[in-house]
Design a protein that fits this description.
two-stranded antiparallel ribbon, 6 strands, about 5% strand, disordered C terminus
Length: about 550
């Protein structure tokens, strides 16, 4: 008896969980667009593709019932597993779309940001002016003229010792000349931060815009257009095309001519090849990519992205208008379009029996494929999220660290006078400053190459189908992300003087161990016998 009650409880629990999943998965018409409310604000103007429709309109539709009950047929729960699959696919896709929008906004923000001189991203106010005031205050009241006088006095006494006592005239004169040069350079940073670092930052911003214009064949003056073009390319790759595949079952679909009627579905056939003749196949492919529909050899092929997306996306998922769009598409009847659709009056959106397969992904039989594609899309796009996110955050942090290093200019100026470690410290500071200044331009070059290669891959693999083209682009982005440290260090290190790889750092460390450390320790111990192996035996 207890076992029977336990089974009943499990059944009730399973039904309750299924009902909860169904309730959560079903879109609510008129519900608040949470992702649109909490998501990042757009950072580009001029009609960006990502801002044409609200974020919540890119959710997935479903048009089937999980549980059906009737007096004659009883209770049919065969729709519960597909509903669960739809729920999981919808959650994965909404997370993917939200991350994609966030990364695109982060990309446009990072390359619109001029933290030093001010930009639209910072409200027109730059941080260089208050930092300059802080530098002048530190130099005047905290660590400035008195310490500089002390440093110059100490260096003068050192120079007298080296020249008069040790009689190293040439070496001493050269070191004093270096100290004077470093002092003049450091004084320029202290006295005129805007004319030095500020001007260099403006120059690197112009270079950044020029590099981002490479995929669009732009120029320096087209920096904003370049960011808009890059954002649109990323949005199409990460959001629009995957949504079309998940919503309509593919970017394109074809049906065999002469099949299908009002009572039966048309027979779906593969899209590629469009024709057995290679020349005709290429021409039909170009026509289908630009247009809505082509008549191929014995089949009718439709571009789902061009034909359907602009009619579904203006309306929220679960709204009456969106449901009416599904009914019109499912029945192939243009008269069922909602009155809010302008095409209902213009009669420029013709539907027929060949459009019916576009609704299969929204029905019960298409949910398992949906879930699999949603997982593939998330895994593929994760590399893009990590890559572009890391580069964008690197650009933002570089500007923050640049201001931090610049604030230490009075201290560096005093240390720049001191030979030896003071000179080394100043050179290290200057190299880091230069590396942070060029990082934005270097990362822009990497992103420009990334966008250009993705565009070339998309064009070169268009005949292989969307999944293969998307997979190759995802593989390329993952490869670049995994190799990002070597790539960025070589580009930034070419200007900033940083070591380009872990191997060079290891070689430098080994060299230091075999020279400086060995000799210093040898002198400290007094060349005690047996303590150190000979150089020949090391």
């Amino acid at each position: 008896m207890n076992a029977r009650l336990l089974k009943v409880r499990y059944v009730i629990l399973a039904v309750a969980l299924a009902a909860a999943l169904i309730f959560l998965a079903h879109p609510l018409a008129g519900a608040s667009d949470v992702f649109g409310n909490v998501g990042p604000a757009p950072q580009v103007s001029g009609g960006a593709l990502s801002e044409q429709y609200p974020a919540g309109n890119f959710t997935l539709d479903q048009h089937f019932k999980a549980v059906e009950a009737s007096l004659t047929g009883g209770v049919d729960v065969s729709g519960v597993p597909p509903m669960i699959a739809y729920f999981l696919a919808s959650i994965i896709w909404e997370l993917t779309a939200f991350l994609a929008r966030t990364v695109i906004s982060l990309f446009t923000f990072a390359f619109s940001l001029d933290l030093l001189n001010g930009s639209e991203a910072t409200g027109g106010a730059g941080a260089l002016r208050p930092v300059s005031a802080a530098i002048h205050t530190i130099y005047a009241d905290v660590f400035g003229r008195p310490w500089l006088v002390v440093a110059v006095t100490v260096v003068g006494m050192w120079a007298m010792w080296r020249a008069l006592i040790q009689r190293r005239y040439t070496e001493t004169a050269g070191t004093l000349a270096v100290s004077l040069l470093y002092l003049i350079v450091a004084l320029a940073f202290v006295a005129q931060p805007a004319a030095t670092v500020g001007s260099a930052s403006s120059w690197t911003n112009q270079m950044s815009g020029a590099f981002l214009s490479i995929p669009n064949k732009g120029s320096v003056s087209e920096g904003e257009d370049a960011k808009l073009s890059g954002a649109d390319q990323l949005f199409k790759l990460l959001v629009l095309e995957p949504w079309t595949v998940l919503q309509f079952g593919g970017i394109e679909h074809c049906v065999k001519d002469g099949t299908g009627s009002e009572d039966s579905d048309p027979e779906s056939v593969p899209v590629r090849p469009l024709s057995k003749d290679s020349g005709k196949d290429a021409a039909l492919a170009r026509a289908l990519k630009r247009g809505n529909q082509v008549e191929a050899d014995g089949k009718t092929c439709i571009n789902n992205l061009n034909k359907y997306s602009s009619h579904f996306l203006p309306y929220a998922s679960g709204s009456d208008e969106r449901d009416a769009q599904y009914d019109a598409l499912n029945s192939g009847d243009t008269d069922k379009l909602p009155d809010a659709d302008p095409s209902a009056d213009r009669n420029d959106y013709r539907l027929g029996i060949a459009d019916k397969p576009a609704t299969d992904a929204m029905e019960e039989g298409g949910q398992y494929q949906r879930l699999l594609v949603a997982i593939v899309v998330f895994v593929g796009e994760l590399g893009v999220f990590l890559l572009i996110g890391a580069l964008s955050v690197g650009v933002i942090l570089a500007q923050i660290l640049l201001l931090l290093l610049l604030a230490f200019a009075p201290v560096v100026m005093v240390l720049a006078v001191i030979p030896g470690r003071g000179h080394d410290f100043f050179r290290s500071w200057l190299i880091r400053l230069a590396g942070l200044l060029v990082r934005k331009a270097a990362y822009s070059l990497i992103l420009a190459i990334l966008l250009a290669v993705n565009g070339a891959l998309a064009a070169a693999t268009s005949q292989l189908g969307w999944l293969m083209a998307f997979g190759l682009q995802a593989l390329f982005n993952w490869m670049v992300f995994l190799q990002r440290r070597q790539l960025t260090s070589r580009i930034v290190g070419a200007v900033g003087g940083e070591h380009t790889s872990k191997e060079s750092s290891a070689e430098l460390l080994t060299y230091l161990r075999r020279t400086t450390t060995y000799r210093a320790a040898e002198r400290a111990i007094g060349k005690a016998p047996g303590r150190f192996p000979s150089r020949r035996n090391r």
